[in-house]
Amino acid sequence: MAPPGGGGEVLDGDSHGDRDRSPAAGMRRFTWEEIGQRNGRGPAGQERWLVIDRKVYDISHFCRRHPGGARLLVSHAGQDATDAFVAFHADKVLVSKYLNPLQIGELAPDQPSVEPTKNEKLVKDFRELRATVERMGLLKPNQLFFFLLLAHILLLDTAAWLVLFYFGTSFLPFVFSLLLLTISQVQAAWLQHDLGHLSVFRKTKWNHLLHKFVMCHLIGASAKWWTLLHSQHHAKPNCFHKDPDIDMHPFLFTLGKKFSVELGIKKKKYMPYNHQHKYFFITLPPLLFPTYFHCHTFYIAYTKKFWVDLAWMLTFYIRFFYTYGSLLETKSLLAYYFIFRMLESSWFVWVSQMNHIPMDIDYDKNLDWMSTQLQATCNVEQSLFNDWFTGHLNFQIEHHLFPSMPRHNYWKVAPLVKSLCAKHGIEYQCKPLLTAFADIVHSLKSSGELWHDAYLHK
């Protein structure tokens, strides 16, 4: 085994030290044990390596320049990232230009292609499924489908203003307009999700361009901010310290059986967690967008200098306050704005959390791609309403396995995923919509009770 900071068997050429990354230095051979030490924490200090298709890359310095954010790349340090790489990168030729200079070696010939912590047969079968998906054309978008989605969003957005314009600002038109705008905003959120995953157009640049229009101009948030956070979630869902979607533990809620007991044993109490299933209703659903997301999207866009996003976001606020300000008085305008944000937030939170909060929440166990996703996700039954209401996130399992797959193809791949799960004894959970909502509350109540018991008696 090579010592931290160097070593490894040289394939060809002479060794010029661990810091020489040029091709002349030769490709070295490494073991999984050596790679596992380069996770940024162990005996190798701040070194971070990862493996893609048996090739070893040093990402220690590149991670700060990674377009998807440093945290996403660092979450795979010391691990095999092959399946995550395939899932997130549509243009392999472009990405190879960044990867090639980072390569420092390969796995030694006696090393298996799959890490010891992963199910080799499942990895092989999932990669065969991925190849089948590509052959079936399930990664190709139907652009008419997405055009109609955008059209109905724009129609609802326009109708919300026209209701106030033609029928006045009395109570009933005010409420009806709010509902129309809320529906438009949530459906825009589902569409920007598609665009952020590059699943609407075959060319990346068109996805990025329309993503800015929908996310920044129609919704008023930063597209790059969303991509940074959401990619991390997909890479390591429900993995503490790696998935930003569960960063609310432990400051607002305690999540998962393991962490709830740990928190109780340590006698930590940031909130009355044994009542979290009650205060959930008046905190996260109505307030996530109007408070945290509002501040965080501007903070990240400003600190990371996403100036183009900020300019696009400004057009939303100019458009909204100019058009609605011409119809509503200042107090009514502000009330209108925050009410539709609270309604939008509630819809989004219930849908986005129903697939994850009730599932397993733990530290990263470095499992294979399919096991990682299935432990943290569940589905909701298919229906025309459920598909529309959730933006097809009722197919959360399929979405997590194939993030760039257009949503209109989830139902086609679902039977293949179920079959693979049955073959390997993996639970494939699918629930009614209302049951999925109820499970959020039940999960919070259960973890709160576990914390309370540990806090008092352990």
Explain this structure to me?
The structure is a single chain. With 458 residues, the chain is mainly alpha-helical. 57% of the residues lie in helices and 5% in strands. It contains 19 helices and eight strands. It has helices spanning 32-37, 70-74, 82-88, 92-99, 120-135, 143-167, 171-196, 204-219, 223-235, 257-265, 276-279, 284-303, 307-325, 330-354, 369-376, 384-390, 396-401, 410-424, 433-457, and strands at 9-10, 28-30, 49-52, 55-58, 79-80, 103-107, 379-380, 430-431. A six-stranded mixed β-sheet has the order 1-2-6-4-3-5. A two-stranded parallel sheet has the order 7-8. A hairpin with a 2-residue loop joins strand 3 and strand 4 (55-58). Helix 6 (143-167) packs antiparallel against helix 7 (171-196), helix 7 crosses helix 14 (330-354) and helix 10 runs parallel beside helix 19 (433-457). The protein is globular. The model is unreliable at 1-25 (pLDDT under 50).
Strand and helix layout:
Blueprint: E1 9-10, E2 28-30, H1 32-37, E3 49-52, E4 55-58, H2 70-74, E5 79-80, H3 82-88, H4 92-99, E6 103-107, H5 120-135, H6 143-167, H7 171-196, H8 204-219, H9 223-235, H10 257-265, H11 276-279, H12 284-303, H13 307-325, H14 330-354, H15 369-376, E7 379-380, H16 384-390, H17 396-401, H18 410-424, E8 430-431, H19 433-457
Parallel strand pairs: 2-6, 3-5, 7-8
Antiparallel strand pairs: 1-2, 3-4, 4-6
Helix pairs in contact: 5-18, 6-7, 7-8, 7-14, 8-13, 10-19, 12-14, 14-19
